[in-house]
Specification:
This protein is mainly alpha-helical. It has a domain of about 45 residues. Helices cover about 45% and strands about 10% of the residues. Strands 1-2-3 form a three-stranded antiparallel β-sheet, covered by helices on one side. It is elongated, with a radius of gyration of 17 Å.
Amino acid sequence: MPDISVSEAHLERLEEIREELDAVYVGEYGTVRPADALQYLLDTYTPPDAGGGADAEPDRDADARADTDPSTPGGENGGDGDTPEDTLQQAMSLLDAHGDRWRESGGDEPYEVDLPDGSTTGVRTKDDVKRLLFKHWR
């Protein structure tokens, strides 16, 4: 695979994303590499025409990026968006905030999570519950 060049600002933002993914998805026994963070961004990208274009409701992640980017109005100088600490706090409180969307079950997989399409999926750990809540309901 060919190498790409990124600016120092982009590299810093990629590191912030890597740290957030590490805290939310991996936990204390693993790590997210910069290449993993880049792959996550590529995997979760939604083309503008698929996401509703310019008339679509802005996503909370884009708002958070704007508040930390000095080139945008309010960025780093009084922006009122999510900081990485806010994002971490949201991730930590997912179980409480979405208590109506997950529950304990009696099967092989001790927890169930309701998905946006109306289906339910079983998972083995509370970290798996958090991962699905973060992915689908954040």
